[in-house]
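Agenda item 2: fe (ii) ion complex prediction
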Amino acid sequence: MTLDQEPTPPQTQLRLNDAVDMRYLLREYYDLYRKIASGGSTKIRSHQRAVREAIGRVIKANPPVVLRTPDRLPVTDHLRRSIDLGRKDQMVSMVRALDAVRDDLSWEYGYEKIPKGLAQKYGYAEIAGPKGPIRTTEVILGVVLFAPGCTYPAHAHNGITESYVCLSGAVSENHQGVYTPGSMIFNPPEQLHRITVSDIDPALLAYAWIAPPEILTSNTMNFRRSK
Ligand SMILES: [Fe+2]
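Presented output:
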């Protein structure tokens, strides 16, 4: 470097407090897990509390926010419709906060082998977790989008407690109920679950995973044969 050259300034790390729209979205997750009904289930109530407390710690830590390269998938053609539907429903505040960051979302499959039909109809985007964009090992938060008529094959998550909250559209899990905006689906670790989606409209779900940090960091997803 010659004396005429300006030294390169140190790269400043974006942090949650400055990533305003991501921070608002994280707060929406917190409020969602505070307000949503537990239906009298002590297990679900304690999961909701665990998610809330994890988010509280993330907000307090003001972690780095590393925006990934935005990436789309065939299913993201249905995102606008999902957001339009969600704006009409009780999940509107969450959906609007999600809409604010939608150009920064990186959609992925998460599976090494993706069944052909599913590749057109499924994708998820993480909001917080070990890979970011909000970097944390406290919890994984994200959204999953299903195109109309999608069947998400049976899968389970080892050591991870999972919940989905329907933001728009309608889904069924294991043929055991129909979940519309504002409903929560709870999957304890190892529970096999298969999701089907209405033929007419896409479905958008928020999800949260709670597990020890080493499991959240090393998680890999695989489909399992239904028994
Ligand atoms: Fe799942």
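Discussion summary: DSSP finds six helices and eleven strands in the chain.
Owner for follow-up: CH.
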